[in-house]
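Troubleshooting: if your tokenizer reports a length mismatch, compare your output against this known-good record of 317 residues.
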Amino acid sequence: MAKWYLFWVVVFVAGVLAIVYLPRHSSDAASSVTTVPDFDQAHAWKDLVYQVDAGYRIPGTETHRKVRDWLVKELSASAGMVITQPFTHFLGGKDVPMWNVIANIPGNGKAPREQVLLAAHWDSRPIADYDPIEANRKLPIPGADDGASGVAVLLEVARQLKAHPVSRDVVIVMFDGEDYGPKVDNMLLGAKYYAAHLTAAKPTWGVLLDMIGQKDLTIYREPNSDQYAKSVNDRIQRASRELGFKGSTNTPGFIDQPYKYPIDDDHMPLNRAGVPTVDLIDFDYPAWHTRNDNPDQCSPDSLAMIGKTILYALQLK
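Known-good structure output:
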């Protein structure tokens, strides 16, 4: 009798342990992430302000070269390898030099590892064509949100990936020539060049950051992103939801609904080249392409929301 009693006790205990410890399966696979990622928003904010204070990042100018060298220096402190990808574009009767800045950050997972692309543009627009004051429309924009915000987030993401590696390899690309204009044939230049020169070992998926620093930031699903990279958009939305960044039409955050119209941005050359890439962008920005695109229109909290979401998404299964 005692033996049978002990047998059933062992069976009962084993059953309890199985319920508690065995993995659960659901349609939303369990994440390996257990804590909110670190993100130094003060450092990211400092990087945003630096870019604006440095001056206009217009291709063909000395300030443009100065900020290029700064980007290489900052990324080199975090990445395994940083290179510049030079190209030229014929503007104003001459070939204007431009550079994509590319950083490779190896993961700590077992090889072969998935490679993820994170991108932003680092140039600033030479004309404020939507400024409410007509006299300003031929002047450059400061580009605090439109350019500097995405760069600032990715510089801090690179620092965090060095301190806390993920299983995936990450390539960070700062695109040049995104905002030259005035027409679209003189825009998205760095992304077009990069996409045209991808090797066979291209990234598995990607995320573009553009205009993600403004106060009361709201990120919808960009329709082109859903068309080409719905699974990536699902990943981003899931990450933001699990981090508590779910927004609404009246609350800043991520909104799991399509934006009112598709946006042609640096993610489109990548998607057409076979790298499913989403565009995280808040296009409802009153200071867009105006002289008012300054740091006072932006928020460190917005940078942190995007940075933490990206770092979390990189760790999801």
